[in-house]
Amino acid sequence: MLIANALLLVAGGAAQVYAATSTLAPQFSPVFPSSMPKATGVVTSYNPGPYDTTTKLSTARLSGYPEAWASPPTSSAEVKKVYNMIDWTKVPNAPVRKQDSNGNWVNDSDENDKYCWWSSTNCVNPRASYLPPDIYTCPNNGDWGLNYDDGPFNRYDDDEDEAALENKYAEPALYNFLAKTNNQKASLFYIGSNVVNYPAAAKRGLNDGHHLCVHTWSHPAMTTQTNAQIVAELYWTLKAIKEATGVTSRCWRPPQGDVDDRVRAIAHQMGLRTILWDLDTNDWDMPAPGGGSLSPAKVDKDFKTWINNFKSGKDKKGHIVLEHELNSATVNMSMFWMPKLQETFNVIPALACNGIQNPYWEEGWVYPTANVAQPTNTATPTGTKTTTSATSVPTPGTCTSGSYGLGKGDGYNGACSASAMVLSIP
Ligand SMILES: [Zn+2]
User: Fold this and answer.
1) Residues classed as catalytic
2) Does the global pTM surpass 0.90?
3) 328 near 296, Cβ under 8 Å?
4) How many CB atoms lie within 10 A of CB 99?
5) Which of 221, 258, 317, 320 is 20 to 30 A from 150, comparing alpha carbons?
6) Ligand 1 mean position to 214 CA, how many Å?
7) Strand partners for 188
8) Ligand 1 center to residue 255 CA distance, Å?
9) What pLDDT digit, counting tens, does each position of 98-119 carry?
């Protein structure tokens, strides 16, 4: 299946307004204030490696942003400017949706799904003809579209117990692991609040050859937001990524996949292609800070099933598989399965398996569409450091007897768990 790709239609041009050659609605690159500091310590084109795998990063934060993890105000001049750049005749009048206190939808469907509401029907083909289809899978058999939501994974500095447990998994732990594990690249969906609180980790993500995409400022269900709130959620995240790393993302993922044609139309005009998934690890729901109560064994079981289904020929598709860099449990689970995935699938960033080479507005960025195992140059800048905080990287070590995946395992030690590695995988 060929997926028409709006991102491919413009080769990283700096044009402010992109008039589509197709019938798609025009897009624009948000205009940031000229007073915004220029990003430092970052590459200005795709960096094939080798990569900086030191474990110390600056803990300096970006300033001048709305409160982190709160719904950002819509009244600022910056947000209003972007709001006024949108052609509101090209934004369907879908309702601002409501959830009850348990997060259940008050009305969970539209007549004939006329706004292509993913949370209701998993719709990925907008009804509005001027919007491109969502990207949700890898078109080629055996491609494992790698992507992580909710990053960059910050350190904890407000809770000593959690810091002791979690900080060894905070970035750059996962990025260093990927660099050392077949030079693996991923598409990263960043929360603006996390970028502002830990911009050095976002710089590392970009410098390590990953794609940076938007995952909103405060992680709401986006169909519950007003038009102005949607603009603000996307704008502040775009700005945080731009200030930290110098790039303006052209891809985004709605939290919980909650998107309809109203939300899509605003995101599209702001330059953002909607990226979903077709396999879900549910890793976010495992017990850990910010997580839930799902047994890690259940997540392990899904990974095993997907591997077995591909090896047996039962599954002949490619997939975008939802994972998170959210906490120790999700990072640990990903580290555990990565080597086995790499033996089985063509593990490749979710954008790359869809042929997307230009995920930013800035010129000079061309990403490969394959995962290149061997780095070929040494163009890695050093970051601007003010204060630094050391992380101890989880070390591969002896398997804990009886450990299984993670949860019962211990970081990389969990990854040694013989029981899980040999269980049902031929
Ligand atoms: Zn998320």
Assistant:
1) 149, 324
2) no
3) no
4) 16
5) 317
6) 10
7) 148, 212
8) 5
9) 999 999 999 999 999 999 999 9
